[in-house]
Amino acid sequence: MSISARIIEKRKELNFSIEELAKQTCMSTKQIHAIENDDYAPFPSDSLRRQCVIKVAKLLKINLDEFPELTNNSSLTTSETLAYIPEEKPSPLEEISHKKKFKFTAIKKHLAVISLIILSAAGVQHFILNEDFSSADLSLPKDTVDSAAEVATEETKIAIDATNNTPTEAVTAEPANPTSSCPNSAQATPISIENPIKPAGHIYFESQNVQTVCISDADGKTETFKVFAGSKYIFDGKQPFTMTANDFGKLAIYYQGRKVPEVANVQAINLSGKPL
């Protein structure tokens, strides 16, 4: 039996993998493969090759007396003492190509992340930081309550009072149908906002019950809202606004970035904006 066959047999008997054997002998897996296949091209000299084989054989507890060719005529010099020989490194051109490929992939990932951040920031700026919403089409379909709730979600952040007057959380809509007609607006109660922080071109409101709310602006634009409990709505137009409701006590109204003071026993209010 050759020394290579004996090494394979003993390695399997001791349940060593090639990687484990390479680690234990401070050699590369390429060199272990070469020893087991009688391929000694990876070794720079025959004496060094024999020393590597001897080191593997001793680790596997192989009796070297069975293989005198390993121990006879050994004339190693001090400089040929066994040392770890690393696996072949890629050529400089291959290494440069790999680095460039890695850097290009990393740059693409960074650009994708930056693009997402910019797009997100642009969306937030449009809905939160932009003070003029008159050009945005935020009008609500009269028969679509769900769409109104979605549009009003972003406006909640704008309309909250600076004194932390947080709107009530949405609750499940009541099954009843609201009154279809608007209350009389002949005796509207005038209301103005102190210390406004937002433009006067839109009204945000949410309801705690089922009722009908009507809003008209200075140009005659009128919209009727059939509101449900927990629903949120927005109306854009030109101030002053006249707003009627079945029950103002169940409405949270925000105008010019402030919460409108609660009013009771009235069916109509008139909102006039103030300069910022």
If you had to describe this structure to a student in words, what would you say it looks like?
The protein has a five-stranded mixed β-sheet with strand order 1-9-6-3-4, with no helix packed on it. The chain has a four-stranded antiparallel β-sheet with strand order 5-2-7-8. The chain has helices spanning 3-13, 18-25, 29-36, 46-59, 68-71, 92-129, 145-159, and strands at residues 189-192, 202-207, 211-216, 222-227, 232-236, 241-245, 251-255, 258-259, 268-272. It contains seven helices and nine strands; from the N terminus they run αααααααβββββββββ. The protein has 276 residues and is α+β, with helices and mostly antiparallel strands. α2 packs across α3 (29-36). The termini are far apart. The protein has two domains: 3-80, Orthogonal Bundle (434 Repressor (Amino-terminal Domain)), CATH 1.10.260; 145-272, no CATH class. The relative contact order is 0.11.
The domain tally reads 2
Radius of gyration: 41 Å
Number of helices: 7
- Please give the order of strands in the largest beta sheet: 1-9-6-3-4
Give the class from helix and strand content and strand pairing.
alpha+beta
Helix content range: 25-40%
The SSE string, one letter per element, is HHHHHHHEEEEEEEEE
Total strand segments: 9
Mean pLDDT: 75
Shape call = rod-shaped
Task: Write a brief caption for the model.
This protein is an alpha+beta fold and 276 residues long. The protein contains 7 helices and 9 strands.
